[in-house]
Amino acid sequence: VAHTxxxxxxxxxxxxxxxxxxxxxxxxxxxxxxxxxxxxxSPKTPHHIxxxxxxxxxxxxxxxxxxxxxxxxxSVLLVLGCSFNLISISKLTWSxxxxxxxxxxxxxxxxxxxxxxxxxGSESHGLYYLQPSTSTICASIxxxxxxxxxxxxxxxxxxxxMVPHLSRFHPGQNLxxxxxxxxxxxxWATIQ
Length: 192
What we know:
The chain is an alpha+beta fold and 192 residues long. The protein is built from four helices and 13 strands. It comes from Cajanus cajan (Pigeon pea).
C-alpha cells in the first residue's frame, strides 16, 4: 500500500547516517543516504514529511534498501539532508508479515509463519536501534567419521541422506569411515 499523503516522523534524536531506528510514529521508511539504495526512482506522487522538530521536507526518491540481508525494505523514501534512517514499524510488520517483540532494552523481529529471526536490536536513550549485520564465517573440516559419530552411528546410506555433501567423498573415504567404526567397536569390546 503506497502512502500518497503527508507523512509524520516522530524522531527526537538525530543520529549519523548509518544506524536504523524503529519508529512507531513513522508512516514510511526513510533515509538521507542515497548510497544505501539498491534501486532508486523519482516518487510518482509528492511525499511531504514533517520531522520531529516541525520542519517540513519532501522526499526526492523512493526505492528498496536492505539494512540486513534478511530485512528488505520496499518503498523507502530518500530525504536528502536527513541524518537518520527510520523503519516504520507498521509498514515493516505489514510488508514482511513479521512480529516485533520489545523488551525494556532490546527487540526481536521474527517471521510470523516460521518464527525465524529476521533482525534484532537494542534500546539506547529511548530509541530502538537495529543491530547491524555481522558476517560470521565459520570454516571447519570434519571427517565423515566424526559426522557419523555425532549423528548416532547411522548406516552409510542413511548418513548420506542426512548429510548430502558426503556423497562427494570418494569410496576410499567411506571405507576408511567403516574401518574406523569397526576399530572403535573392537577397542571398546577389548576394554570391557
